[in-house]
From TrEMBL:
It comes from the Bacteria. The keyword Hydrolase applies. GO terms for molecular function: deaminase activity; hydrolase activity, acting on carbon-nitrogen (but not peptide) bonds, in cyclic amidines; metal ion binding. CDD domains: ADA. Its cofactor is Zn(2+). Its EC number is 3.5.4.4. Residues 5-320 form the Adenosine deaminase domain. InterPro entries: A_deaminase_dom (IPR001365), Ado/ade_deaminase (IPR006330), Metal_Hydrolase (IPR032466). This is Adenosine deaminase.
Amino acid sequence: MKSMPKIELHLHLEGAAPPAFIRGLAQEKHMDLSGLFNPDGSYRFTDFWDFLKVYEAATSTLQTPEDYRRLTLAVLEESAANGVVYSETFLSPDFCGGRDVGAWKEYLHAIRDAADQAERQMGITLRGIITCIRHFGPDKARETAVCAAETAGDWITGFGIAGDEKVLQPKDFLWAFDCAREAGLRITAHAGEWGGPESVRAALHDLNPERIGHGVRAIEDLALVDELAERGTVLEVCPGSNVALGIWPTFRAHPIGKLFDRGVKVTVSTDDPPFFHTTMAREYDMLSDAFDWDDSVFATLNRTALDAAFCDTDTRSKIA
Ligand code: ADE
Ligand code: ZN
């Protein structure tokens, strides 16, 4: 499965940082982050909320545009090695310069520089989705949206929301989403991972996103599943993430197959691969084993992802 060309729509840049990379940065900066790691070097967390804490602590080692340049190269190298040819990646002004527009532009310049290098050397294309973080609250999300609007263009193509779905409501972030939409950015929102169908409905009806990050708990309400299918809303499904965090016990128990069979536009991504001990190749292997999916199903999933990508038509035809 490694060599099959893959389109990934849902990857958090900081969440894709290999633990050894973060340990290296911590050492350079004389930070003691040993508590974040297991004895075998992997990230240590007990549940989703602990994961968010470890994620943010690991991210505290990323302090300069140069750190992000190196991170972007490391992440794209790993994605390319797993057959990813196009990666839509969540970028957060919260972590890149503290939502200051000037600093954000410097971080973005460094990330883009690395992405251009990776495209030349490894044939992988990156597009950025600026994401606000739900548990940081609506005021910070406004500042994030301003950063996004200031840098919207051919390379920054979308706006989204991640973080703890159990706090606040999508409608609390309307200003930020309206601002991003007015700047021409396309919309996705995390929902239906830790919240149930009501959370998916709120994101769908209040933010009107083209795509939903996860969305998989919609399976608990078949009327909602049918609504997603009718609207053509694309789900950025991350089965390995959901299994690693304990939402479902195995790939076989994961609802992606049922959602697909009922006509929902599903795609496959990794979310935060080293945290969840996964890669795009592993996701494909596990799905193939769990659901007996052959190459034609994966071709369909990739076609759906390509059609749903927030890039321009030139880029789409180049990667097709
Ligand atoms: N940020 C990084 N990974 C996330 C996830 N799985 N859910 C919500 N926010 C996230
Ligand atoms: Zn995510």
